[in-house]
Structures are given as structure tokens and as C-alpha cells.
Amino acid sequence: MKVNFSYDFTLTFDEPVRNHHFCLRMVPYTNAIQTLLAWKLSLNDGVPYYETRDGFENHLVYGFLGKPHRALKATIEGEIELSPYVYHDKEPVELYLPHSTLAPLCEDVREFSRSLKLPVTDFRKAHFLTQLLYEQFRAIEEPKAKGLETFLLYKEGISQDFSHLLIALLRSNGIPARFVNGFIDGVNKTHTWVEAFMDGDWRGLDPQSGIFIHDEPYIKIAHGRDFSECQIHRGSYIGKRQHILEIMGRIERNEQ
Amino acid sequence: MIESNSPFYDAFKGILNTIDKNRVQELLTYMNTEAINFNLFKNNAFIERKFPFDIIPRIVSPSEFAYLEKGIQQRIYALNLFLEDVYGAQKILKDGIIPSEFVFSSKAYLPSFANTSVAKNIRVHISGIDLVKNSVGDGWVVLEDNIRVPSGVSYPLSLRMLTRKVFPEFFEKLPIQGVSDYPKKLEAAMDYVNTGGINVILTPGRYNSAFYEHSYLAKESGAILANGEDLVVEKDKVYLKTYNGKKARVGAIYRRLDDDALDPVEFHPDSLIGVPNITQAYRAGNVALMNSIGNGIADDKGIYYFVPAMIKYYMNEEPILQNAPTFLAFFEKDRNHILQNMRTLVIKDVAEAGGYGVVFGSQLTKSEREKLKDAIIAEPRRFIAQEVIEFYDIECLDEAGTFSPRKADLRMFSIYGEDIFVWPGGLTRFAMDPTSYIVNSSQGGGFKDTWVLKEQR
Asked: Which domains does chain A have, with CATH numbers?
């Protein structure tokens, strides 16, 4: 399936900041189920950018905006070919079994895990957990605090919380799982989901909608062991830290 | 037990007896003038502290040095190959020599730097290997490989300079190998991996415990001493900002910052001492970092266990230097051994450094021991245990002019450039407390010079 996509990223500051070194992960990932056919990235005021890749093969775009500015805006648009969400790659699967900082096997997760009666096979376990998160947890914009403890206590959180909890539960059941940052059509936030390795393939699981992703248009940007390794924006600047992040993804089927 | 059976110590003492003891005071004054400090952070307070030293050196015989040199070269070569492998093809994991879980569950392994190639395939440019000489059997034993940001070379180097000035007799009468070419070797290694531009030593600043060393090495190697704010990434390269507003391209950086502090965009966002986006320039191959990013996985106290296996695997050689007998709680058999022999073992938390997180089982109360047992069972990956090594004491000369024995280790430095240079000197650290085994500088230990003797004709 070929789709046209566009993805807008805006970081707005209350007061102008300067000497802004940034590193963006916003170019879609290239792998067996995503082929990037064309893309064009532009930054505000035509700021030049440079490209490299990290150890996860995430595509990095980095640069520098020195003069005072109230916003960093980046837009990428292009065309991508998507295939059904079943694939494998060269990365060692075992990398995604140990628990990581943002998806820890903390006491609260352990306790929650103990309270569940899970089916037998990996597939059914993964499906059960994905559904469970969808049914029992609520997506909100501003959680009371960060982290899985809060998410488990109030049963509400942001997209990352869903993914991190699912990852922690999968890993504690011996299923390798990784964090995915990306977008779907129209959602006004970064959308995150999970890839789980079962029967020799990575499969996409979206705990916010309770589904195994198959041929729905999900565009993956980056992955890592947890959110800390695939953030859309990382930066360092002089100025007040407060900022507002806005993201808009659009995906349209290309009928030709 | 004192390492005193060597004829060299007798020769040393013979000369010392002919020397006016007031000159020791003179040496002390010189050391103070040079401000040879090892600063400490304790209870959030910055303490500028003199690094206590003792004038009796450790003396290493020519044949002993030749053996250590070969052993260290072999070890560093293997550790470098391990890092190239573990951030590349990961053959050693696929072949089951090291359990992959062991590497992947370590915080020191940085998968976001997998497949990043480094200049000349060198990652372990500067290393400091800690050894002790076992009084049982007289053999050298490696305790730790320090291949992230090892410090200490400048202390014996400065002490040597001053000792030569104050006590020339020793150098006239004993065939002591010179050590002053260390900074030149450092410079040559920086030039060797340099990707185009000047050489820089990146320091966290004057509050760092080893700032003295950073400035010393910069002065002597011809590199520019810079703080993070003096460097800037422009386009995809690193530049030094100079006072006239011009910028100079930087091709090699001997960085004395931990990975975590190196780049606020990539690592800890609150780091004010790093250089934003320097890791991107590094990934792009536009600057050499000494040492490379992610080396922590190779000097992880748990990976230490596997170094002899690495030497066999990568080099098809028998290890020249021995490890201390080590047990990994990760393996069930070893874990049971640890749990049953807590009293006779030293237990180390692999995540800690600088003598923190080291516990002698014999010194624990019953309840402390039970608590540690629970921790080991809960998180086996975190702990290793070693048999206590009865290593040699070396004598110290105290203020009253009497000799008293202290436990002493040896940190030997090497520089990997065109070849692996093992410095014919070293930092000998001793425990301040005559009953203690902990010699770390950050735990209040002192230091001695290390004299490597030349073959006499």
C-alpha cells in the first residue's frame, strides 16, 4: 500500500531561546515493511540540517539554531510504501528482553502482573495484554506524574505509558518487546506502540486501541528499548525550559 | 607481608640512609607548590585535598616489567577487539562465549552506538589496569580494567620530576627507566586517530578530582585544554572557539568526561559541561573521541570475568595475566558458592566504581549478611564475588622516620596508538589505614611512584 504522508512538528517556547542544538527523529524508518519512496524535510527559516543514524538504525536529523527564536518547526512530507506488519531484521532479539529504565519490572508492575491470569501461548498472551490495557486504562493528555506507578494507580496516562507497561509485561513473560515512536492519521500527538517478537517475527501491537496492527496505516519513525532511546526531539538551548510540543500527522492513501 | 625480599629495596634503603631527612620536607614543599591535588566531593561539599604521597617507591625489576608489558598489551588488544565486536557483529555472543543477556542487561552497553565505526578501529586509547602482587605464589593478579576515563598518570609523573630534583642520588646509582615520554606518546596517539584538526583535552573543569592532571597533560602534550563551552558543533564537525572569535577544527578529543556528561542532546540533558551534538559528529566519523563511547561494557566488573575467555577467543592465546578468582552470581553454581562462602569473599556491586560498593563478607554483621544475600538472589546480575587476595604490603616512611607496611596496588597505564605502549612507570596506591585493603584515591588512599628498572649491562 502506497501512502502520502506529512508530519508537522512544532516546539513553542514561552520566551525566546537561543543557541539551540537539536536532534530530531522524524524521518520514517526504513525496513522490510516500510519503504520510503520520497521525502522532503524543511525547518523554520531554512535552517540547514545534517543526517546520521544511531545504533537502532533510526534516522537522525541534527542542526543548530543560534539566534533567538520562539519556535522550532519541522515538516516532513513524502511517499511511503507500507506492507503488512510482520517482519524481522538484523538486530539481536535478546537486546529487548532485559528490563529498561522507563519500562522497569518495579514492584507495582510485578504485582499487577501477578494479578493476571494469562493464556498459554505467546501470541495469546500478547493479545490478551494488549486488549487488557485498552479496556482498563484511559488515555489522557496530562497525567498527574510520570512513570508506570502513576499509570497503574490511576489507570490513566499518555501514549508512552501504555507502551511502557505493555513492554514491561511482555518482557516479564519472556517475550522480547521494543518501543516504537511514530504516527497515525490525524492524531494530534506522537503516537507510540509496541513491537513484540514472536515465532521469528516482529509484530506491531497498539495497546491504545487494543489491536495487533496488520495493514492499518501506521508509520514508524524510530524504535528503542524504551522512549528514552527514540525521542522525536532532543535538544539543548539557552532559555527557559518550559515549552509546548505540537505534532500533526497526516496519512492519505495514494490511489494511483 | 612486605615485598622486601628484593635486592632493589635494599639498594634503595642503602641510598636513603645516606640522605639528609630534611630534604623530604623540601620535596613536600615542592609538591604543595605544584598543587598536586586529588579533589573530593563529600556530603555535597567540595574539598580541595592534597593527594598524600610517600617517597618510598614500588620497585619493579626488568624481567617483571617485561612480563607485565606483554600481559597488558595482550589484555588491551583483546578488550579492544571485544568492543569492536560487541558494537558490531557480536560474534562472541552468537558463539556463546559470553551470554548475550549479560551484555544486554548491562547499563554500560549502549546499543544506540552499535555499528558506529571509530578511527583506526581503536576504542581503548587510554587504559589503566589495576593489579596487585599476590604474596601467595608471588604472581601478579589483575583486579580491574579501567578503560573509560582512567586517571592518575600525572601524579607519579610529577613526583618523579620532583624526586629527581631533590634526590638525584637515586637516579645516579639505580638504573631507573625514564617516564617523561608519556605525554609525547599521548600526543602521537592523538595524532594517529585525528580526523583532521587540532588535538583537545576536554575537562569537566577545575572542580573535577583530576583537574590537575588534565592541565598537566595538555601542557605537556601540546593539546588545547578546553571546557565543554569552548567547543561547538557546527554543521557536522567540532570546532574550538578561540579568543579572537575564530574557530579551529578539532580532530581528536581526549575527553575526561564520562559518557553521561558528554552531550546533553544525546545523554543526560542536564549536563552543563558537555558539548551539544558532539556524538553526532562522532557518529559521522568527523572527530575521534578518546576513549570511545560505550567502553563501559568492557570494564564492567561482571564482564571482567570473561576477559581470559576473550583472549582465547579473539587471539587464540593463553592469557598471560591472571584474574583474581571470581564468581558470578548470575550463574547458579557460582551463586550458590557465593551464598555459602560469604564470610571469605569480597562482594562487589558491578554498577559501582572507585571502591564504592565493595564489601568484605567477613566484616558484615549477621543481619547485614542476610540482607546482602537477599539482594544477590533478587538481582544476581549485579554482583560478583572474589576471593580475598593477600597482596603485598610496601613500606611507607612516616613522619617519625620509621617504616610501616601498607597494602599497595599498582595501576599501569597504556596508550593505544600505532601500537600499544605500556608506560614503564605506574601509580602505586596504598591504604592510609594499616589494616585496610582499600587503596582507592577517592577513599582517602595515598600514592607512591613506581620505578621500573633497566637491565644493567
From this structure: 2-83+232-253 (2.60.40.2250), 86-229 (3.10.620.30)
